[in-house]
Amino acid sequence: MDADNHQDPGSSMSPRIVVVDDHLIVLDALCLLIAAESDWQVVAKCRTAAEAIEVVSTEPVDLVVLDLRMPEMTGLDLVRRLHSDRPDLVCVILTADISDEELAEAMRNGVRGFVLKEQAPSVLIECIRAVLAGGSYVVDQSLSAAIDRIGEHDVERQSVMQKLTPRELEISRLAAEGLRSREIAARLGITPGTVKLHLHSVYSKLNITTRVELANISQRLQLGSN
Which residues have a Cβ under 8 Å from the Cβ of 202 and sit 6 or more positions away? Predict the structure, then answer.
């Protein structure tokens, strides 16, 4: 980790940026690119997620630019940790590729900018400016399409969550895990008949007829997660 703790007088309003990448050549190039912007300050360049966590916990930081693929702790793990510790911290992910699942998880943890490594350096600068201004940024068509799919998925999930009562959701999750009615009843302290009544209501509300369909919906919409 290479951190610069000295700030010029009068530059206290400059955004303070941490860059994280395990490849030193890439890391140095990113820092030079970002530092070339006169109104930005690179306060640390980190080769591991652990180093970045240490900097963020001890220094004022406005934005973290991080690689998604890193050893030991991945960029996604780092994003989760940073969002838990500093929900206000802005993050930008720089990556060669990203799955829909990774994209959704990153967005849930406050990442507002996504840049592919194949894109021009100016794209990263545009992205940083946009997220520092309070916006979000993605220009790649495939990523934009993935974000649209995630949005549609979230709307569908919310619709299902609103249709079912808390007890129906609880029973649906257990049924989707493969538990039989008697096992669900024993776990929840109710009768097997009551479990079946709840499941009948769930089937009716979701327009399905089998536990297999319920399990598929539960897995696809992640009904077992908060």
Answer: 164, 168, 171, 172, 214
- Other beta carbons within 10 angstroms of residue 151's beta carbon come to 12
Degrees (nearest 5) of the Cα angle 28, 74, 92? 60
* Encoded tokens for 79: 């994003």
Cα(163)–Cα(204) distance, integer angstroms: 10
Q: Residue 165 and residue 101: Cα distance in Å, rounded? A: 27
pTM: 0.62
Q: Which is it for strands 63-67 and 90-95: parallel, antiparallel or unpaired?
A: parallel
Measured distance CA(226)–CA(196) in Å, rounded: 24
Q: How many other C-beta atoms lie within 10 A of the C-beta of residue 209?
A: 10
Confidence band of 160 (pLDDT split at 50, 70, 90):
confident
